[in-house]
Amino acid sequence: MDQEKPLRTLAGILARGDIPHAFLFTGIDGIGKRSAAMGFAMACNCLAAVQEKPLPVPVPGDSGLPFCGTCRICRAIAAGTHPDVITIAPEGNAIKIGRIRELIEKVAFRPHEAKMRAVIISDAWAMNPEAANALLKSLEEPPPQTLFFLTAEHASDLLPTVVSRCRHIRFAPVSADRIAAFLQQHHGVDEKAARSAALMSGGSVARALALTDVPLGAWRQWLAAELAALPSRPVPLVLAFAEKLQKNKDQIGQWLGMIQTCLYDAVVWKYQPGRIMNIDMTDAVAALSEQESIASLGRKIDAVVAMEKALNRNLNPRLATEKLALELANRL
Ligand SMILES: [Zn+2]
């Protein structure tokens, strides 16, 4: 399915003028749901004689939504400074009822200047039932000139009463080809790195962008080299590797993902070297693949998955990291 389909649907709704007052955009993270909501808000409020313009990233291709992208209103919306475009996102893991109450008070008044105010609630699944029920009243009796956009991965993550009051639009993962082309054309990423990031992104443009980020790219190279080197290192150096992972707690989730793709690639390399994801690091993948058996790579993949689970359950991260490092070094 093509990523542009939901955008064309939105353009069609706008052209017909039968605009619902609440939308639910579902799909994985980083495929442009929020960006599409902003584009729709621009299209409703743009000052210029409008023509089709690409959305502010991250949505590859033209949106089909009519806005100029350059007038005062379009620029303020893109910059996130327009007073009539209100965005709410989880703080920590929750959207609390206090935020929703504040919002309801705010939207009871007419917009400052917008023809259509937009309220974008990202990750709306994070509303607890209390917050969702408070919002429900606004969805039932919409305030004047206000459009709600809720985003979530799945509709089933939300109360059915909320879902039933929204026009549900599904966003599909973006194809690897399209992401690779987007990274090359709009972010100057070279062909191999773009292709590799696209393959590893699972269809998420935001994730692909993060993967092509220079510091992250450097970490990826370092991790791949470490994976091949760890088995020949003395234990204190293996624990030093664990310490380094441990020190950068914020990135550990991303690192685990990178370690996993390297290990998978080392397995794939044995049978179909042309199908690996890290195509910009074939030397490191080949080295790892040649020195490790399938069984050993399988154990290591299991260890990474176990570590991800331990992180989610907030188990002692130091212990878990050391255990993982020893497993990656074939010492367990
Ligand atoms: Zn404009």
From TrEMBL:
Q: Is Transferase included in the keywords of this UniProt record?
A: yes
Keywords in alphabetical order, please: DNA replication, DNA-directed DNA polymerase, Nucleotidyltransferase, Transferase
Identify the Pfam families for this entry: DNA_pol3_delta2, DNApol3-delta_C
Q: Name one GO cellular component term.
A: DNA polymerase III complex
User: What is one Gene Ontology biological process annotated in the Swiss-Prot or TrEMBL record?
Assistant: DNA-templated DNA replication
Tell me which EC number(s) this protein carries: 2.7.7.7
Q: Which reaction does it catalyse?
A: DNA(n) + a 2'-deoxyribonucleoside 5'-triphosphate = DNA(n+1) + diphosphate
Gene Ontology molecular-function annotations = 3'-5' exonuclease activity; DNA binding; DNA-directed DNA polymerase activity
Domain DNA polymerase III delta subunit C-terminal intervals: 238-328
Query: SUPFAM superfamilies of this UniProt entry?
Result: P-loop containing nucleoside triphosphate hydrolases (SSF52540)
Query: Record's InterPro entries?
Result: DNA_pol_HolB, DNA_pol_III_delta_C, DNA_Rep/Repair_Clamp_Loader, P-loop_NTPase
The UniProt entry, under PANTHER family, shows: DNA POLYMERASE III SUBUNIT DELTA, REPLICATION FACTOR C / DNA POLYMERASE III GAMMA-TAU SUBUNIT
Q: What is the protein name given in its UniProt record?
A: DNA polymerase III subunit delta'
Species:
Desulfosudis oleivorans (strain DSM 6200 / JCM 39069 / Hxd3) (Desulfococcus oleovorans)
